[in-house]
Amino acid sequence: GDSVITVELTEEDKIEDDVVFYLVFTGSTVQHCTSTRKINPGSLETISPGHDCCETVKVALCASREGHPVLVVAQESFQFVQDEAYDAAQFLATCAGNQQALNFTRFLDRSRPPAADVDFLDEKVALAFRHLKLPAEWNVLGADQSLTENIPRETLMHFAVRLGLLRLTWFLLQKPGGRGALSIHNNEGATPVSLALERGYQKLHQLLTEEEAREPDSWSTLSHTVHSGDYSVKHHRGLDVYMLTAEA
């Protein structure tokens, strides 16, 4: 999801000013309809939807003109695959509150991946997290809410801050338990805030401590989603395209 898709039109389908094009993705249980942006008379751009499973779906390019029926211009297949970033996001989501699993993730810190790899990891895992269907009761601190803030323990927020994952930290802050995790000490006595300060992550420390801290710039190019029952609408601010997703 949130990747750019380019559609090249044939000569006879070149865009007239009053024609609007849509892409319709039809999966086994979910359907997506995206608007498109005209790049030039022969090309369109849109954003790929985040799908609910790995499968091959049918994609139809539809043309709409006021006063005329909707026309299916072309059809093609499109495959959604699960990558390592999605696996990582699923693992992290399921191990929230699992001390053994969270302690296991600390080996990543000892291996110290290069900054470029960290940035790539941050972008991909945060994006995958956005497309996960998290349970309504999901919490950054795990399922056991009886634990008090005084009990030292590792949290998902410690993990994100330790590696300097700005986008993932922002995502977790918006979720239940995200703000509460900021004051929890781990077994070494470090909070996510003190970890950011200790490691010199200035942007991250600012994000955690300033009430008016804004979302990371890289985050603002992603889709903003509004849910309503079995439907959701996304607006991708970068391309100014919209996507309607409906569960069948």
UniProtKB/TrEMBL annotation:
<dbReference type="InterPro" id="IPR036770">
    <property type="entry name" value="Ankyrin_rpt-contain_sf"/>
</dbReference>
<protein>
    <submittedName>
        <fullName>AKP13 protein</fullName>
    </submittedName>
</protein>
<dbReference type="GO" id="GO:0035023">
    <property type="term" value="P:regulation of Rho protein signal transduction"/>
</dbReference>
<dbReference type="GO" id="GO:0043123">
    <property type="term" value="P:positive regulation of canonical NF-kappaB signal transduction"/>
</dbReference>
<dbReference type="GO" id="GO:0016020">
    <property type="term" value="C:membrane"/>
</dbReference>
<dbReference type="GO" id="GO:0015629">
    <property type="term" value="C:actin cytoskeleton"/>
</dbReference>
<dbReference type="InterPro" id="IPR051632">
    <property type="entry name" value="Rho_GEF"/>
</dbReference>
<dbReference type="GO" id="GO:0005078">
    <property type="term" value="F:MAP-kinase scaffold activity"/>
</dbReference>
<dbReference type="GO" id="GO:0071875">
    <property type="term" value="P:adrenergic receptor signaling pathway"/>
</dbReference>
